[in-house]
């Protein structure tokens, strides 16, 4: 990845935040794996910045639980998710996405439902084409859209610190057909304004994903 691609040339965004997002994206996409070491100087050269914003980004990623400092030489490594952390993330998802699904069914606009439909269709096309990375990206965007459709101002703020770890979970997918089908069911319930069905589908979706990740020791 080039520096321009990694930082996306956002003049109004602090460099530390741009570096943080670039590294978070790499972790979520699996380009940085658990146990990989992160070198400040290499990243500074790659992104064309000083080490100050890189250090700031690493501090924030450490606070988000995505990296850890292991030894006296201050080696920084991508953190393994771990079973307990995965379970806790699913607990949070079940509670917050159930709420988001209910509110989305009650409040969503035709434009929002259409955006969700486009993401569902994109995920299905990617699945049929065997492009699982594109499918994971569409699925992650689907969950973001679900939260946006809820119209709840606090939900995005509450979920933002978990975004990197949640995106990583979305890529641990051994059951792509099930995931696509459940997203299609959730979209249908929201489009119909059926709040109870939307909550039930959302919670079943989280429960199925929890079983898949934990039972197969993917975390």
UniProtKB/TrEMBL annotation:
PANTHER family, alphabetized: GNTR FAMILY REGULATORY PROTEIN, TRANSCRIPTIONAL REGULATOR, GNTR FAMILY
GO molecular function, one term: DNA binding
Domain HTH gntR-type: 13-81
UniProt keyword annotation of Repeat present: no
One Pfam family, short name: GntR
UniProt-listed PROSITE patterns: HTH_GNTR
Name of this protein: FCD domain-containing protein
Record's keyword terms, sorted: DNA-binding, Transcription, Transcription regulation
Organism: Allosaccharopolyspora coralli
InterPro entries (alphabetical): GntR_C (IPR011711), TF_FadR/GntR_C (IPR008920), Tscrpt_reg_HTH_GntR (IPR000524), WH-like_DNA-bd_sf (IPR036388), WH_DNA-bd_sf (IPR036390)
């Amino acid at each position: 990845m080039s520096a321009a691609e990694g930082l996306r040339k956002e003049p109004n965004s602090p460099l530390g935040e741009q570096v943080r997002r670039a590294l978070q994206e790499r972790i979520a996409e699996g380009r940085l794996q658990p146990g990989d070491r992160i070198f400040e100087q290499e990243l500074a050269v790659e992104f064309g910045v000083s080490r100050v914003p890189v250090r700031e980004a690493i501090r924030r990623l450490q606070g988000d639980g995505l990296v850890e400092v292991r030894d006296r030489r201050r080696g920084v490594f991508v953190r393994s998710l771990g079973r307990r952390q995965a379970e806790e993330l699913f607990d949070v998802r079940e509670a917050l996405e159930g709420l988001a699904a209910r509110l989305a069914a009650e409040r969503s606009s035709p434009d929002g439902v259409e955006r969700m439909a486009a993401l569902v269709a994109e995920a299905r096309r990617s699945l049929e084409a065997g492009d699982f990375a594109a499918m994971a990206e569409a699925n992650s965007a689907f969950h973001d859209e679900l939260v946006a459709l809820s119209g709840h101002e606090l939900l995005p703020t509450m979920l933002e610190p978990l975004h990197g770890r949640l995106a990583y979970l979305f890529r641990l997918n051994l059951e792509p057909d099930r995931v696509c089908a459940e997203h299609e069911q959730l979209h249908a319930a929201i489009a119909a304004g059926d709040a109870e069905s939307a909550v039930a589908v959302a919670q079943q979706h989280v429960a199925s994903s929890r079983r898949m990740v934990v039972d197969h020791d993917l975390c």
